[in-house]
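Note to self: keep these together.
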Amino acid sequence: MTTGVDEALQARRISASQMRLAASHPFFAVLMMMAPIRMTESVATAATDGESLFFSPAFIAPLTAAELDGLIVHEVLHCALMHVPRRRGRDCLLWNIAADIHVNGLIRREAHLKLPSGAVIDASLEHLAVEEIYEILRSREQLPEIALLDLAPVGARVGDGSGASDVALEAHWRSAISRAVAASALASQGKIPAGILREFRAACEPRIDWRSQLWRWLVRTPDDYQGFDRRLVWHRVC
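Structure:
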């Protein structure tokens, strides 16, 4: 079904958005370059599978330049913060709401960016990690309405693309963030928002296997001096 919207024109608007971001937010512009953008009518608004960004031409056509910039950064942040692989087995709708609250809170702090009408905002929760927001939302009887169900399950087909594996996504975005930090440092407007940088570091920090850590504390090793040493019996110090 065609919508009568000039898809080529909307694609040019997205390219213009990238140029604006390069001037005002070079960090986001570099991240945007790492996510293929596809125009498709198979999504109602905008979506991401954690690897690519999908936009409905009809949805973005009425958006202002600032709103389009905000929408693109919204989707890019979902990717870079690895919200798709981090969902694991959690409820898809609830995770989308939690991730949107968090991402929109980050965007609201940035000048030159504006969220489209209907964006989910909760100032009381947006400073928390997505996992924390998710658990709080689980305890509530009523949830905020969400216009964009934009996080696709890992491996699911969205538009004309296909999702990548958790490992591949995490490796890709760790590399992308490193490049964005380096490129932003070279730019004259290279300041990276502190709050966003903390989120990236938290998302990319090495994961510690709790089983290995627990094993260190529960299993005796050659350097464990808490046990009974028979060599010291005759000294009567054991």
